[in-house]
Amino acid sequence: MLPFKTLITIDESSTIAVYRQIADCLIVLITDGVIQPGTFLPSTREMAALLDKHRNTIVAAYEDLITQDWIETLPRVGIRVSIHLPLIKPRSFQEGGKNQTYSSPAKFNFKHIPGPEEQNFQLKRTSIIVNDGFPDADLAPFDSMLREYRKLMQGSSLKVLMSLKDFGGTKALKNSTVNFLNDSRGLNISTENLLITRGAQMAIYLAAGMILKPGDHVLVSDPSYYIADEVFRQMGANLIRIPVDEHGMDIEEVENALKSTKISLLYIIPHHHHPTTVTMSQQRRILLLELIRSYQLPVIEDDYDYDFHYSNSPVLPLASSAHDSNVLYIGSFTKLLAPSCRIGYLIGPANFITQATNLKRLIDLRGDTMMEEALSVIIDSGELDRHIKKSKKVYNERCDQASLMIADRLAHAVDFTKPQGGLALWLKFKATYPLGEVIAKARTSGLLFTGATYYEGAAQKHNGMRFGFASLKESEMQRAVDILRKITI
Amino acid sequence: MLPFKTLITIDESSTIAVYRQIADCLIVLITDGVIQPGTFLPSTREMAALLDKHRNTIVAAYEDLITQDWIETLPRVGIRVSIHLPLIKPRSFQEGGKNQTYSSPAKFNFKHIPGPEEQNFQLKRTSIIVNDGFPDADLAPFDSMLREYRKLMQGSSLKVLMSLKDFGGTKALKNSTVNFLNDSRGLNISTENLLITRGAQMAIYLAAGMILKPGDHVLVSDPSYYIADEVFRQMGANLIRIPVDEHGMDIEEVENALKSTKISLLYIIPHHHHPTTVTMSQQRRILLLELIRSYQLPVIEDDYDYDFHYSNSPVLPLASSAHDSNVLYIGSFTKLLAPSCRIGYLIGPANFITQATNLKRLIDLRGDTMMEEALSVIIDSGELDRHIKKSKKVYNERCDQASLMIADRLAHAVDFTKPQGGLALWLKFKATYPLGEVIAKARTSGLLFTGATYYEGAAQKHNGMRFGFASLKESEMQRAVDILRKITI
């Protein structure tokens, strides 16, 4: 007889019932070929004695295996492994009868995609995390969200909404978003121009995925938002980089590229450019719109930080000017709420949005109905506008504070221009301070930079990094700047 | 002088400040070439009179335009449109000076992707919606989620978590999920084998996206989950359909396909197959595992409904047997919670999961940290297990009720086999009842089927439809069956 006592391992502390553990072990022994089809098993009484368990436990295990066709009862003869099972070549016994199902790496072919290294940073109470421009979660209107969640739970509409197919956002949120965008951004859209997504990132992915084919050429800025770069690359596109100066993307270079190459897409962040925070000048904006119309050039306009503009009114997006339905406009509520509330949007011509909604469904079948409905109420009640106003005041102050501190204490190492808006500064370190070293030293001093535009690609040569001031209290900012000073002086 | 009174339209009821409306209209007039660079504008006093507004309003509008470089002041001369702006060919005046920015369809090339038609179904209080197998939102543990949300908001850890990079799920949820899956499914995985996604749909998209190239061949069942079919098609793959009978996918046909064609991926739903609800026999399971090992065949095992099994213990997944790191295992908490809580997972070898996590980041930068942390607590406290037990009892009863009613009242029109588990029945209508007609007639009687496996593709020939019983109270079920009887008798 097989050494069942050894082969069948039972963990009394497990949350799995013992009879299930026994049945599972027997299945593994059968599928591994250790017990062949037709082999008789010990009777329930014998097995109970072997394993030192109650007989009823073994009866339950065997019954389970019988209903699943693993074993069969021959009346007055015994219980055997089903002879209908195919014969299996026995393989070596495995430790404890358990398969190490994923112990070896995958050997089939799959893509390799660059990404950040997971950082083993020991977070302490004194650690400071500087991101690349997140809102302050302490300001987030979580309370209002929870209040709306509770109301929704008590009503009956949520259940119906969750039963219906999702066409890229609930109707209520689509209506609220259309009003919000038309009012704040001078757009002139209706719900058929709008798709609700999981943050701006998914909107970029969907817009590009609808347009790009392998071998296509995409214009991006230099430097550009590195995760968008990687999206286009993964779709097989070739990136053509256009320099960015203090007036934004160089439009003459865009025109040169259009003249010499078939361009399938332009990705641009005209307002608070990522990472450099530059806002494009009106002159270039007008020239670009001319190019868009005359070349009928599809454009993704990423306007992730529109709502936080301090020095004057924000600059209206390209999407609100005449672009002949070529500009796809992307933004997000995430920066207005909290990093976990990932609701973004993609705006475009209706025929495009219908198809993008179908693509979205293949990736993400439904949105978060509850969050979408709650956000809709918060927009419609004017609460979002009040929240933006309040946050803008705080962030404006923090922008001033950070700019003053850095100008005062880090001028020897860092160049930067105070931005007109947004949630981050773009710090260009002088060549004598290679960014990799600065970041590594900062880490050992308890300062972690998570907004890594530096870990790869074209931004590296700029030796620049985003310093997200918006989520830092003044004392945290002070400590972060102190650490940077200490390691650069 | 231009007819500013006509060109500048002001909406007093708008939430946009009047000065902003005036500034925005002027920008449009400039970018549209109606007002050319160098043109002098009326003085603030004149403009105030023209538009019948207070002079301070015009001053504010002009100041806004000056800081944005649209116009410039020549001391003692006047205010003109900046001569640094490029000359623009005037285009025809647009109604009210507003651009219909998205009034024309997109003319650039983009993909066309099949999807459902948005249905203009007039929901009434008496309407019944039958989905393709959703959980009942009335049972969802929303209260517990809100309780945990509130606790998280009061703590300090959430802010830190939201500041860190997301590596496919919070650490807490990864740990909880690993324990939950190892306990319930006989897996033997650690967190490096796990990626948290937005529902099972995103897991399918990511797994397939990592593996498939245009022209690849994928084995799917006939019929299969139609949205997965579409995912593979969008990636340029060719589908080879393998018949499904009452024992599951025909493994001999799988072997034939493997012998004759280079197969890049097998997509299979061995447990409560979608749409047919069949569970694969042990014999086929063992044969399939043999094929997987000998051909080193990458497999996506979709186990979306594992936790609801009524007749005996659920059948362990392929992923828990010896598959030589070839099986990617997919599931979701959505069916355990509510349709809006879209948290799913992809399980695979560690080297594959690292790369899939990088791909996920390109599509969906971060998960919902708050929901992930709350779910983790609910798993760890045993509350999820209790919730599953409770729901399973309800759904088991509803499965019995629905099966009895349909056998009793619809036998003339419908064939079906009561499933061993899951949240839906697979109703095969006899040929004399074409499904399209049945569904259309049902709609006019107030019965809406949203689980449309029928609207396209290979499933159509099966004339079958999923009947999601789990979210229906007995009286609703009764009414749904009555309507189906009335339109088929």
TrEMBL record, chains A, B:
SUPFAM superfamilies, from UniProt?
PLP-dependent transferases, Winged helix' DNA-binding domain
- A single GO molecular function, which one? DNA-binding transcription factor activity
* InterPro entries in the cross-refs: Aminotransferase_I/II_large (IPR004839), HTH_trans_reg/aminotransferase (IPR051446), PyrdxlP-dep_Trfase (IPR015424), PyrdxlP-dep_Trfase_major (IPR015421), Tscrpt_reg_HTH_GntR (IPR000524), WH-like_DNA-bd_sf (IPR036388), WH_DNA-bd_sf (IPR036390)
Claim: Transcription regulation is one of the keywords in the record: yes
Task: Please list the residue ranges annotated as the HTH gntR-type domain.
Answer: 16-84
Which Gene3D superfamilies does its entry note?
Type I PLP-dependent aspartate aminotransferase-like (Major domain), Winged helix-like DNA-binding domain superfamily/Winged helix DNA-binding domain
Annotated keywords: DNA-binding, Pyridoxal phosphate, Transcription, Transcription regulation
Q: Which Pfam families match?
A: Aminotran_1_2 (PF00155), GntR (PF00392)
Report if keyword Nucleotide-binding is assigned. Answer: no
Query: According to the lineage, what is the superkingdom?
Result: Bacteria
Similarity remark: In the C-terminal section; belongs to the class-I pyridoxal-phosphate-dependent aminotransferase family.
Would you tell me the protein name for this molecule? GntR family transcriptional regulator
